[in-house]
Amino acid sequence: MKEGWQTITIHAQAPAKPPTGEVCNGCGVCCAAEPCPVSLALLWPHQMPCRALIWSDTELRYFCGMVTRPAQFLRWLPQGWNAVASRLFKRWIAADTRCDADVEAA
């Protein structure tokens, strides 16, 4: 393996990583390669891929579980706070906006 490279595992049907700056397509490369600020702050122990990375068989893409169902990953979070936490986390990590993963997928 080349120096500075890491191997990540993603679903075989995941879309290809878009170029940096293009619209997010749910490829999952970013969350499989390194933890986001939400993961670093709230999900312990840190692991790669992020344990909140969720594959959708129906949409053939990944979603952030901290955005779609945060109480599942934060057991201390009341279910009634899911919507508020979801909006906060989505904004914090700019989920589903533009690809900001400075990662080259081969």
In this structure, how is the largest beta sheet organized?
A: 2 strands, antiparallel
Large-scale geometry:
globular
> Radius of gyration in whole Å, from Cα?
14 Å
- Lateral arrangement of strands in the main beta sheet: 1-2
Distance between the termini: 12 Å
Number of strands: 2
- Return the string of H and E elements: HHEEHHH
Count of DSSP-assigned helices:
5
Helix proportion: 25-40%
Task: Compute the average pLDDT.
Answer: 88
Low-confidence stretches: none
What structural category arises from helix and sheet content? alpha+beta
User: How much strand?
Assistant: 5-15%
What are the defining features of this structure?
4Fe-4S ferredoxin-type domain-containing protein, two-stranded antiparallel ribbon, 106 residues, alpha+beta, 29% helix
A few lines on this structure:
29% of the residues lie in helices and 8% in strands.
Account of the 3D structure:
The protein is an alpha+beta fold and 106 residues long. It has a domain at 29-93. The chain has helices at 29-33, 37-42, 65-68, 70-73, 82-93; strands at residues 53-56, 61-64. A two-stranded antiparallel ribbon has the order 1-2. The longest helix has 12 residues, at 82-93. The model has no long low-confidence stretch (mean pLDDT 88).
